[in-house]
Structure formats: structure tokens, C-alpha cells
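Sample entry (765 residues):
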Amino acid sequence: MVKLYDGGAYLIHGQTIIPETEVAKAEALTGKKIDKAEARKGTIAYGIMEAHNTSGNMENLKIKFDAMASHDITFVGIIQTAKASGMEKFPIPYVLTNCHNSLCAVGGTINEDDHMFGLSAAKKYGGIYVPPHIAVIHQFMREKFAGCGKMILGSDSHTRYGAMGTMAIGEGGGELVKQLLCDTYDVACPEVIAIYLEGKPNPWVGPQDVALAIIGQVFKNGYVKNKVMEFVGPGVSSMTTDFRNGVDVMTTETTCLSSIWRTDEDTKKFLTIHGRGEDYKELNPADVAYYDGVVHVDLSSIKPMIALPFHPSNTYEIDELNANLTDILHSVEVEAQKVSQGKADFHLLDKITEKGLQVQQAVIAGCAGGNYTNVVEAANALRGKNTGDGEFSLAVYPSSQPVFINLTRQGYIADLMEAGAIIRTAFCGPCFGAGDTPCNDGLSIRHTTRNFPNREGSKPGNGQMSAVALMDARSIAATAANGGILTSAETLDCWGDVPEYSFDDTVYEKRVYYGYQKGDEEKSLVYGPNIKDWPKMSPLTDNILLKVCSKILDPVTTTDELIPSGETSSFRSNPLGLAEFTLSRRDPEYVGRSKEVDKVEKARVAGQDVTEAEPELKAIFEKIHTIVGQEEIVPAETEIGSMIYAVKPGDGSAREQAASCQRVIGGLANITKEYATKRYRSNVMNWGMIPFQMKEEPGFEVGDYIFVPNIRQALDGDMKEIKAYVIRQGKAEEISLYVADMTSDERKIVKAGCLINYNRARKNQ
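Predicted structure, serialized as C-alpha cells:
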């Protein structure tokens, strides 16, 4: 079904994959000598990156994007950062959508306050503003901005428009700020992995099935981590562009950097329907293209899939699951106990009935599930059916008002409603825990993007826990037609009857504010009472003292664990208010520990004696003075900050808050074995924290101190071996840390204390 190549390979004439070790076959097929370095330039990705690179050096890219996009969880912080850094206008089209908190106004910011801030920013700086309920971020970008050969940057990890010939990247807010200041996105040229598609999906197989089949094979081994996935092969043309979009948006869950697809007449058709035929360009790899790896996918062999809690890579064929319910579900229950840390119970075995696995809830939503084709297929499956009056419920969220309008005009919305489905507006809530939270101990099946622990909104710390399994809209509809008993779409024979889509953007013309290049600097930003500026952060000192405030030994730590999504996002525009939730569902004591360290650092900055602010530091510094070469270390000149150890943090969201929340309450560094994603590591650096790594197992515990001398000097070097000392129980134990490669600007940002400080310093030069 899905096969991974052990090494690189050549793609000949866009059709034939030949392993690198068999280059003679490739040369025989082409009739000429093959130059590997030249063949690397033959990928679609290389051509697009070269066209957007300003460095003149394809080894170290400095990218300028064609457009950007943010939603209402992120755009306030981004604009506040850019404003503080000296931004005067949006230099490229910047789309501000309001699809992530439209129905959530709990405890923090009143949502409309943030929305009015966004509208005022669009008017002041020249942006595009999409009001709530009109479109989810990625559907709007597909409809109005994505085009062949473009590059788009978004402050959401699922920024993926590769199926439309656009290389799109999801990053934290700091990277968008750099674009707003006319700086560049700096990254080493990524490797490119061919996703070679052949065959044709069966009618009962949807885009989520294809995506999950791939994710299940490549996530755990990091096969495409921080690389570009390039979809090639004859199988591409067996799918419509709408179908491809559904596969493409899920590539984020592989931890790849970006994606790109070859384009064809269907791509042209999609763009033409949306009034942008001029944005079409045929994109194909060169006659000889070299790829650093190959994922070979036989589309015809893919069956309806399910990703069980608590990760999109926890994949099974639905038939396999149904044949082994007890064993497989027991393994999920065991994992649930680890997730809840014994604070809440979650059961699946009790949901096995004579008919099969009883599901409590189903959702088809967002940038992955709410597409036109998915909803049509679901409506066809449910026409004349009855979802029942029991515990099972189905909600459907079309991805944009134009999609909603077309579905309504063709009668599909009525079909769904008559079957018992609840129809909602364009909203990303089910994807991040702010909409349709399942009942306690309930299982929700969803055609959305993620099923991380607690992302559906449950609170195990309060004894409430539920979970999500990911499925395609077709199998969700089949399940709904069967009263909520888990059912594969293969059991029905109603697929493939999808009429042509007709795009009507009248609602956009009437409701979307198009202000690009129309900014008025005399306009004022509109602030609500809970929209706060970033607090001040100090520059890095020559020597630092870190207090271990959390130690997480899980194989992977998601950004949702670092800062929970859902209702906490109502504090998104108040940095200190949001920071109160840092690690709240994973280590509830962390915030208190970090804030105590921050008090000491603030006392130091104010010129107070830190040994009086924190008496235990007197003994700590006395021990530091016994280290050879550190006899003269002065507490007043040593920055003190909190530190988190995690094995592999940062899988998931691009939200910079996963890093900024650490920073604003005293975070100064992370120590890890590795970082799950580039975007989280970039966020860490943009917020002035040091992204330490260590090869050995951590011998320190929460409450210990780690002294790192000469850190500024170390950041100027190769950073391969940074000497540090664990101070505990009256002893100083030497350990070795390192920092993976950083650009010159990243080093300067960390030493400045954060991106804002760095930009202010540049402005005042």
C-alpha cells in the first residue's frame, strides 16, 4: 500500500522511479550521463524555492513570500510584535481570518474585541479581513490566493496549498513578523521527498484515508521531518483538486516543512472555477529529478482508515480494527491512563456492542473535512437515512460560505439536516477544542486535522476526559447511517456522484474587507480591555543560571500540551493571562515554579540582591564559585530563568504561544533530545530562549539548577559542545549541551532577548 525507499531515487520523465543505487538504469533510460547535483534542481520544489530566494545561495535560503495568512488566535500578537518592531504597513497581501474562536468567549478576551482589532489593523496597515463564520483560513486562501508557483506563509501549522501548486509553510508569528518588516524566512535548503502516486482511489476511499495511510508510515520514523513532500506520478490525476486539497492539508501531521504537487488540467479547472485561471501554470518535475527519498503509494490498495487516539499516526484500516476491537482498543485505554496521569478514566471496551463499536459523536469540519466534495459524499450517503435519537450525534461544518451556499442551492444541506445532522458555519472549533466537545468518556470520530490528547476540549485534570479518532467523511457518514456503529464506507454503494462545483463569492464581495495597499496610517488600532502589549524581556547575559521547572519524559510533547488550545485561547491577546495555562494539562505546578524564578530575575534587573530575593541562591552561587574559572561570577550579572526538559517537544501547532508563554513567565531555555518541528524551535529562538539539546539522559530533576557560563561566546561559535554544570545537593556536576545550527540573525535574536528587542535595536542604529 505505502512503501518507503531506503535512500534517494531518480524520477525519469515524471513516470519512472529508479533507486539512486541503480543510476545506470536511469542513464540507460535517458541515454545520457546523470549529474546528481543537477538532477536535484529538477524537482518542482527547487524551482519554486529558487524563484523566491533572495540570498543568491541555494544552500541557505532567504525566502520572501507572495502572501501571508493568520487567524484570530495569532494575528493580534503578530501585529503587536510587528508594531513594536517599527512596522508601518503590510508589504504583501496579509489575510486576517476569524475562524478559530468565533464561538468561544470564555474568561478572557471578548472575541469581537480581537476581531475589531484585526479590522482596524487591516485598515491601518493595508490588510484583508475575513469576518467570523465566513471562511476557515485555509479554504479562503485556496479560493482567493493560492496559485501555481507561489509561496505563502501562515501562522497556522496546516498552511498547505501544495495541491494548487503553491508551496505553503506554517510557522510561528515571529516568522510572519520578519516578512512584515521586509526581512526574510531563513532556512537551509530542505531535502525533497517524492510522494509517488499510482493507481486510483476506490470510490469509497476519501482524502483522509489516503493521508492517514501515508502519515501512519512516515511520522514515527521521521521520514519526511522538516522536508518537502512532492506529490508526483500518474496517480495525481486520478483525484480532483478538491480531493487533493484534503490529502495535502494533512501533510502537516507528518512533520514535513511544506508540500507541492504536480499540476494538471484539473488544477487549471479548479482555479478557473474560482475566477483565477491566470494563476494556473503547469508544474512538473524535470525529465530527470533527484529526490532524497520516495514514498510509493498505490492508491488502489488503500482502504478506509481510522487514526485512533491520541495521534494521527496511530492508524488502522477500519476493517482491521473491527476484526480486533478488544485488543486494539485495550491498547488505547492503556495509553489513556498515561495521558490522564490517573486523574481521569477513559474507556473504549465498554463501547463494544453486539453490532460493533458504538461511537458517541461525529464531526465533519474545517480545512480538511468541510470541503465541497466531502460534504456532498456525506449527504449522498445519508439521504433518506436516520442518524437516530440516541447518544450519537453528527455535526457538519462547510469550510466557507461559498461552499455552504453551493451545497444549499443543490439541496445537500437539506439532505443532511433531514437525516439528523446539525449544520454549523465555517469554524475551526472542533479542530482545537472549542466546539462540539465530546461527553465525558465519549469517543468522537472526526474528519478534522488532529486528535491529540485534550485537543477536543476534555480536561483530565478535572476528571473529565474524552477522545477523538480521525476518519474520512465517507466512513463517518456510513457510521452515521448505521446509528453510530463504527462502519467502513466500503459497506455502502453510493459514492462518486458529485456534481460540478459553482463558486459564488458574492458574500466575500459584501463582507470581506480588501484593504491591501490601501492602508491609512492615521487610523488607530482598536483595543479591547484584555488586549495587552508584550512585557519587557532582558537581553542575554554572559552567564546564565537555569532552574529546572519541568521534566517531561514522554516520547513526544505536543504544542497543545505546552499551551492548551480550546477555551484557553480566549486569553490569546493577553500574554501574561494566557501564560497562566502553560503546561496546565501536563504539569500544573510548572507555572508557579516558573513565576517564582521570574520574580528573582525581575529583582536582579531592578538592582536587588538575588540572594535575598531567593535565599537558596546563596548556596548555589557559593558552589558555582568553586568551579575552576568561575570564581568571580557575580549574581547581579547572571540572568536567571526557568527551563523545561522534554524529550521531543513541539509536535503540532505553529502557535508561537507555545514558546512565548514560557518566555513571559521567566523561561530562558529548553533542553531536549530533539525538537519535533522546525516551527516550534524557531518560535523558541524568536522569543529569546536558547534551544539547548543534550545526547545523554538528563540526570537533573525539577528544582535543580543548571549553570551555563560564557553562553554569549558559545552562541558565536560552532555550539557543538557547550559546557554546563548541574548544581544539586551541594555538588556541581559537569554536563555537555549543544545547540543545532542557527542563522546569524537567530543568534542575534537570542542574545537580544527576543525578536522585538532585536528589531528595536536595529531601528535605533
